[in-house]
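Hmm, how's this folded?
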Amino acid sequence: MASIRRCTGSAAARAVLAGGLLLAAVPGCDPSLYKKTKLDLYEYRAEGGARLDVRSIHMSFKGKDTAPTMPVLRISTKKDGSGQFAFTRLNHDFRNPFCYSVGMGMFDPMLPLPASPAFSATEISHRDSDPLVYYGIGVQYFSGGAQAFGYKNGSSNIGTVTFSGTDKVEVGFYTVGSTLSFMARKVGDEGFTTFATSSYDGGLGPFVPSVGGANLSQRNTGFGFALPVIYYNTQAGDPSLEDSIADDVDCAWEAYLDFCDAYADGDYADADDALLDALEYLDGAYEDAGSLSDPKRRSTVQKDLASAISSLEKARAMIGDERPFRSINRLVIKGFDKSAEVLPEIRSFQTRL
């Protein structure tokens, strides 16, 4: 089995898309171990008329006409009525120490925010806890601002912080020892505010993250989620075969974001190098998948990875012709989306989904 290869990306990759800043000032966050990740519908639940989708929202990107769009995960409603909610998990485990943040709010200008008591949220759940132990940060929006609040196992707020003049907030968690800290900032601000803390039991296993929204009731309103950031500071123990495969897929996705960065700069050599990095990770995942014990699962995973590898190899051939970003990106996204399909096949998760 291949060992886990921790991907740190290029120096240029250590700046969050759309102008976010590094979490270097946050205790427990090592900028050299920064990872980009992706929000997608890996495993999700929606009830009462709520729905989830991923849209490409055009964002200003280095002033280039060839600017890539930014993927925004949206949770919205298609009808009026109380009790609507939806959550989806991220394809990562968090082990102590870690640092994680995600942006939420009005990232899609065509999707108005719902009024209180609706709230967007991110939660982290102990994978091995029974009954389930989870922590969350919710955000409610009001005219001219937003308020973030922390909670544990559905208990009342354990801390709040309010921001004026914004409809987008970044929230997240970091660990130092046995203390879990809750943090938030207005999108574009340099520093986070730590507004709550809680002790936690590291013996309950790694955390599984998710994002979602609850108490939705107004038709054609909802939340957008973007700018996910992870710092992996440690990998506890020897990785399992499944963790090695999943980590390689994660690293391939990070290489995709490097590809976007390079192509927006017109640096076709670096764009090609980013796809080469992605192919190296996917080749490693394919090799590891050959050791999966279940023949049906082994066949499914390797088939998806082979399809992803084929798409990226075709995209590399197009880069040499300096084809427009959108035409190449369609093929690249096809490959990466196919690679992401292996994740539910190799990992089981316990969350509030």
